[in-house]
Amino acid sequence: MIAPVVPDTSPYDALLLFSFGGPDGPDDVLPFLRNVTAGKNIPDERLAVVAEHYHHFGGASPINGQNLALKKALEGELAARGLDLPVVWGNRNWTPYTRDALAAAHADGARRLLAIVTSAYSSYSGCRQYREDLWASLDMLADDLGLPDGEHPLVVDKVHSYFNHPGFVEANIDAVVEAYGGVPSDARLVFVTHSIPDTMEEASAVSGAAYSAQHLDVAALVAAGASERLGHPVAWDLAYCSRSGPPSQPWLEPDVNDHLTALAADGVTSVVLSPVGFVSDHMEVAFDLDTEALATAASLGLTAVRADSVGTREPFVRGLVDLVVERAASARALDAGLEPSPAVSVGTLPTFRDVCRPGCCLMRAGRPSGIPAACSTDPLS
Hints:
By secondary structure, this protein is of the alpha/beta class. It has two domains: 14-163 and 313-335, Rossmann fold (3-Layer(aba) Sandwich), CATH 3.40.50; 166-306, Rossmann fold. Helices cover 42% and strands 11% of the residues. The chain is built from eleven helices and eight strands. The strands form two sheets. It has a four-stranded parallel sheet with strand order 2-1-3-4, with helices on both faces. Helix 5 (124-144) links the parallel strand 3 and strand 4. 45% of the residues are buried.
């Protein structure tokens, strides 16, 4: 009998599940929001308004439990494939912090890590800001270890933006099809994602396709897949949620509540809300969609259900481990001076780069932040 071939994840000796983080209780909410908005000079009075979203759920964000569930699911999928790759979890904005996860991995003997960010799309807030946090965390760990300036104790690579990976798309199709079991078959499908400032949208195009274009590509794939499985065409739109900042600053629109109002005025009577821009049912989903948007729908007389996010669905978790194996093969090829094999993707947009290009995903087009970022050829790019 021929033994099964175990995939190779070298040169990586640990996997970093890298997320946003969230408060664990009421006393954490304001300190957490201060972390999120550090450097923006936002007074506590304004943060207190956002804090009410968390206090609505007892002061704890669901994201931490969801990250633990995803970590467990990744460990299970890795073990099922015979892969001995430890998984550590770190957050940008709350415990366990990125620097703590990196320190733990280093103490356990890891020297090269692969990071999976819990954001499928490419933009400043979904990619580059995580890479900046990685660089800062590596600097702090180097200081703790007494290393010379500019020397880092770990190499950290990153899985590319995976919005158009088949596992992510398949998991979203499954969730949408299930949601249609609770509404009339002619329900309008409204995809929802986190809004970003127009300036960030313009800057995101350097990555290969603008943030909105990435979502439109995925939405078209999910709607087509759902239409095929449901046996009838599904009409769909893309809307946004969670905008913040001053009213004078333009952000991507339409807001999901405004869009529901417009749909009701056009005679639509039922909708499915699909949180395609999110990996898990964290606060933006639990409050902005499950609380506010569903309340808006009810006030308009719309029958509305919310589809699940991909969470720990099998196609998504399987797809993430596929990406790990794929990125490891790419790293081995690049280390050997060879051209990596083509990566897997679906839709009309190409697969995003394993190594972020210079100037990728800045906050504003043409205005480098000057903050070093990991996982790129040039830390200041």
